């Protein structure tokens, strides 16, 4: 059910932003719709998700209507701050959004369209478990305005899927991709590397299988052990081995080699796209600090420099909204120092990098040493931007520390 929410100041019952906050209407506005339902909890997962036995009064069949109450609540909040504008991206995440009927997802998307508007050519993504995607589902999603399906492949190797507690049939990944293509949807596949018992050869097999699907976009994330998860407990008890940092580094380099050889360009540390048009515009908005509103239990938002987050459990979320109150549990307004640190942390992860001129004091002086260490691109830095080399991507946290100390 995810980690604890951060501390923060209370949010008014109507969800209003702090007084004096004015939103720049020219800033892109993304919408995230969280669907917190899963059939099975994966042992590594720390997301705010719930199986049927954990819902305790919340109902999946009422969820779309509940979330739409929050969408309606958001409109006057944005209007009062001068930032009610059409969405440039919409992203259904989870959980497993495709556990809901396509009609429910269509109603949620329709509510966003009716309340805020959606710009022409917007990217509208739905995350999906391969076993939940049929030709009918894909066609219905496309008809509702969805443009992109992000399929949770994770691995093509059965014993690796088992180590991750993934229950989908690996053969169904190809079926899901085919259904999405036939419906006219763009396709992304997500992979995870470094699972217990996964070898470099296993990882190569998964990469080659993903490339053979000819998707538009591939994400490859190193397995991170989160406190409180089943996998963390298994490692603590010595039942399985913790991820090996050196092996994960080898896996990352193999991914970068194979994906580049297949025509995919990296544009963020863990993401590769067939071309710039197929980058995840929604996720890029997070990395460059645009505005987004996250709807749903546990969802986080960033509007006009203010961050706020919702209560976690679907039942508590529904109760707040049924009472006509904001489901926000807390908020914060980072100061200039915190925002500068966050900008370095996030923008160094993307291909376009960070302007050298935004670095402060010792951080700017660290650039020369980072070039000498092969962690940032020298010619690009001389042109005024900090861009990670491949070695720098492997050591991104160390680069950020050097640039912010």
Automatic annotation (TrEMBL):
<keyword id="KW-0349">Heme</keyword>
<comment type="function">
    <text>Probably acts as a heme chaperone, transferring heme to an unknown acceptor. Binds one molecule of heme per monomer, possibly covalently. Binds 1 [4Fe-4S] cluster. The cluster is coordinated with 3 cysteines and an exchangeable S-adenosyl-L-methionine.</text>
</comment>
<keyword id="KW-0408">Iron</keyword>
<dbReference type="InterPro" id="IPR058240">
    <property type="entry name" value="rSAM_sf"/>
</dbReference>
<keyword id="KW-0411">Iron-sulfur</keyword>
<protein>
    <recommendedName>
        <fullName>Heme chaperone HemW</fullName>
    </recommendedName>
</protein>
<keyword id="KW-0004">4Fe-4S</keyword>
<dbReference type="InterPro" id="IPR034505">
    <property type="entry name" value="Coproporphyrinogen-III_oxidase"/>
</dbReference>
<dbReference type="Pfam" id="PF04055">
    <property type="entry name" value="Radical_SAM"/>
</dbReference>
<keyword id="KW-0479">Metal-binding</keyword>
<dbReference type="InterPro" id="IPR013785">
    <property type="entry name" value="Aldolase_TIM"/>
</dbReference>
<dbReference type="InterPro" id="IPR006638">
    <property type="entry name" value="Elp3/MiaA/NifB-like_rSAM"/>
</dbReference>
<keyword id="KW-0963">Cytoplasm</keyword>
<dbReference type="InterPro" id="IPR004559">
    <property type="entry name" value="HemW-like"/>
</dbReference>
<keyword id="KW-0143">Chaperone</keyword>
<comment type="similarity">
    <text>Belongs to the anaerobic coproporphyrinogen-III oxidase family. HemW subfamily.</text>
</comment>
<dbReference type="InterPro" id="IPR007197">
    <property type="entry name" value="rSAM"/>
</dbReference>
<feature type="domain" description="Radical SAM core">
    <location>
        <begin position="23"/>
        <end position="265"/>
    </location>
</feature>
<keyword id="KW-0949">S-adenosyl-L-methionine</keyword>
């Amino acid at each position: 059910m995810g980690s604890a929410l951060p501390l923060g100041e209370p949010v008014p019952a109507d969800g209003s932003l702090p007084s004096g906050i004015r939103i720049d209407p020219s800033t892109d506005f993304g919408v995230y719709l969280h669907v917190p339902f899963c059939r099975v909890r994966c042992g590594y997962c720390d997301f705010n998700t719930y199986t049927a036995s954990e819902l305790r009064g919340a109902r999946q069949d009422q969820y779309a209507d509940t979330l739409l109450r929050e969408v309606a609540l958001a409109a006057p909040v944005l209007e009062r701050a001068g930032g009610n504008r059409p969405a440039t991206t919409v992203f259904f995440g989870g959980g497993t959004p495709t556990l809901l009927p396509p009609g429910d997802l269509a109603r949620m998307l329709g509510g966003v369209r009716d309340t805020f508007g959606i710009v022409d050519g917007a990217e509208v993504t739905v995350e999906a478990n391969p076993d939940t995607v049929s030709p009918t589902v894909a066609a219905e999603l496309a008809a509702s305005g969805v443009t992109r399906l992000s399929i949770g492949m994770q691995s093509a190797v059965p014993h690796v899927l088992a180590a991750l507690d993934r229950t989908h049939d690996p053969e169904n990944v190809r079926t899901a991709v085919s259904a999405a293509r036939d419906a006219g949807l763009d396709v992304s596949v997500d992979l995870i590397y470094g699972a217990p018992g996964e070898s470099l050869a296993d990882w190569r097999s998964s990469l080659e299988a993903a490339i053979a699907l000819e998707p538009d976009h591939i994400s490859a994330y190193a397995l991170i052990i989160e406190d409180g998860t089943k996998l963390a407990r298994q490692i603590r008890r010595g039942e399985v081995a913790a991820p090996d940092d050196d092996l994960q580094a080898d896996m990352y380099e193999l991914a970068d080699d194979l994906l580049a050889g297949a025509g995919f360009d990296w544009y963020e540390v863990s993401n590769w796209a067939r071309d710039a048009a197929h980058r995840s515009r929604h996720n890029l908005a997070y990395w460059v600090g645009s505005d987004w509103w996250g709807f749903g239990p546990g969802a986080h938002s960033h509007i006009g420099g203010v961050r706020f987050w919702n209560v976690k459990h679907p039942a508590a979320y529904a109760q707040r909204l049924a009472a006509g109150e904001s489901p926000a549990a807390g908020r914060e307004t980072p100061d200039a120092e915190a925002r500068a640190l966050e900008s370095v942390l996030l923008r160094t992860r993307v291909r376009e990098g960070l302007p050298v001129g935004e670095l402060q004091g010792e951080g700017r002086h660290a650039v020369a040493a980072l070039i000498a260490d092969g962690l940032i691109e020298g010619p690009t830095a001389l042109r005024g931007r900090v861009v990670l080399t491949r070695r720098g991507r492997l050591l991104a946290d160390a680069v950020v520390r050097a640039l912010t100390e």
